[in-house]
Amino acid sequence: MLEPILNNLVAGNPLEIADWRSLEQDALADKQRAEAFDLSEITVKHDIQRRAVLLRLVYPEFRAFCQATLGNPADFLTTLWRVWLPIAQQLANRHQQVGRPFVQGILGGQGTGKTTLSKLLTVLLRQMGLNALNWSLDDLYKTFSDRQRLQAQDPRLVWRGPPGTHDVALGIETLDLLCQSSDQIISIPRFDKSLHNGAGDRATPEQAQNIDIILFEGWFVGVQPIDSTAFDQAPPPILTEADRAFARDINARLQAYLPLWQRLDSLWVLNLSDYRLSKQWRKQAEQQMRAAGKPGMGDAEIDAFVDYFWRSLHPALFMPTALKRADLIIELQPDHSMGALYRITGAESPLVGDSK
């Protein structure tokens, strides 16, 4: 059990030699995770010692973050040690290697925790002396008026979200400015989903400078167009010829996002063990809201909402290609816990840095 050892570390207590060895053995026990973090028998001792110093450094802020966002810090201490700290260390190393702001893409469907992960990494990196920007594909939604015109042209775009509803040029311009100048004040687009009765609109931009790492997350960040023949035998809810036509049109609109994806230095994927979990989790969350007396969507509304996104970019069709291009894959289990963490050996080089 790691918990007693980690509790001693955060308390500042010295560890026994056997404790250090236990930490080293744990780091190497999962071969996939060890490979993803470039750990070996040769490097593990040094890595564990560095990680221990970092754990003591970040724990006070991590504890506060958990209490405000996640829950009991003790429930997440092992995950912090095994996953979140090594990820933060990797980001810091990659930033140092490129010598400029590092752009990390994070792909994850609804409910995978990509926004929470980005916020947590921002906290950890700040304790490491690095200024991270937590940014979302959602922040690039077109203005309310532009989306109204877009919906008039294509009534199938019932909700914001699918390819075609974002200002891709604005995203490219913002990332380029962030990567070209560290001390210049950059306006970061932000989006307020509460405006216009939930339709949302642009909010006041955030002013940022001296950014070291950009954490750019979204439900189809890095996703590539696929062969249109894949829709001939598409899974539900792509059932009718109209559904297939919509899916093909959305697939074609992904092409416009490729120049934006080329600004990514790396791509991580938060991958559900079963993509249908996202609908199940959404229903559970909305049920809890209604039980607490807050407004929440009914099951039928959730089915319609999630099916709309599956018709546009179905996970079963688009995720396999995304996984092949990822630097890091984190599997998520039905209980929301993290499963396997790995990178695919011999995977295609991500669509990263091609324009840099």
The H-and-E topology, N to C, reads as: HHHHHEHEHHEEEEEHHEHHHEE
Helix count equals 13
> How are the strands of the biggest sheet laid out side by side?
2-7-1-8-9-10
CA-based shape: globular
Would you identify the regions where 5 or more consecutive residues have pLDDT less than 50?
A: 352-356
* Number of beta strands: 10
Strand content is: 5-15%
Largest sheet: 6 strands, mixed
Describe the 3D structure:
There is one protein chain. The chain has 356 residues and is an alpha/beta fold. It has a domain at 1-83. The chain is built from 13 helices and ten strands. The protein has helices at 3-10, 17-29, 31-36, 44-70, 77-98, 114-127, 144-153, 168-180, 241-253, 258-261, 277-291, 299-312, 315-324, and strands spanning 102-108, 132-136, 186-188, 191-192, 201-202, 206-208, 213-218, 266-272, 328-332, 338-342. The strands form three sheets. It has a six-stranded mixed β-sheet, with helices on both faces. A hairpin with a 5-residue loop joins strand 9 and strand 10. Helix 2 crosses helix 4 (44-70), helix 5 crosses helix 6 and helix 11 runs antiparallel to helix 12. It is globular, with a radius of gyration of 21 Å.
Question: Main traits of this protein?
Answer:
13 helices, alpha/beta, globular, six-stranded mixed β-sheet, 356 residues, single chain
Give the structure's gist in a few sentences:
With 356 residues, this protein is an alpha/beta fold. The chain contains 13 helices and 10 strands.
